[in-house]
Amino acid sequence: MTETNGTRRVFICGSALRGQPDHGNLQGAKFIRTASTQARYRLHSAGDGWHPAIYEVATDGISISGEVYEMQIAEFDYLASNEPPNMYPADVYLEDGEILTAFLYPQELIEQFSWKDISDLGGWAAYKKELLKA
Fold first, then answer.
1. Three-class SS state of 78
2. What is the pTM for the complete model shown?
3. Angstrom distances, CA of residue 33 to CA of 11, 51, 89, 105, 115
4. Structural domain boundaries of the chain?
5. Model confidence over 7-62: pLDDT tens digits?
6. Which of 5, 37, 113, 118 is the most exposed place for a label (fewest CB within 10 A)?
7. What is the spatial order of strands in the sheet that 51-56 belongs to?
C-alpha cells in the first residue's frame, strides 16, 4: 500500500467512480488519472447491483478499469468507514506495474451468495449503465 507524506494513492473501480452515487465518499481526494489493473482479478455484482465486488485470482483474471486518486489519510479512513461490510483494503497491481490500494471482497462470500460475474461487461460503470437500460 503506497503511503507518502500523509497521503495514499487508491485505485477506485466501483461506486465511488466519477459519475457514480458514492463519488462523494472520496471527499477532497485528488483525481490523478484513469488506469487499469493487470489481468488478475474478477468483478462481481454484489447483491445484484448493490455494490461491486472484486478479488484476485490465479487464472482467468481480467483487467479492471478505474481511476487513481491521491487522498489524505483522513480521507482514506473516511472512505474505508463507508465501504460495505466485508470489504477490505489490499494491494492491487496496475498494468503499468504500480501497486496501489483498492477495496476487495472475499471470494468465498461471492461464491456463497452466487453473485453475478460481470467481469466481461467493461467495468462497474458500464454494468450500471446496462442495468438502467433494462
1. helix
2. 0.91
3. 10, 22, 20, 24, 30
4. 3-133
5. 999 999 988 899 888 898 999 999 999 999 999 999 999 986 788 999 999 999 99
6. 5
7. 51-56, 41-46, 116-117
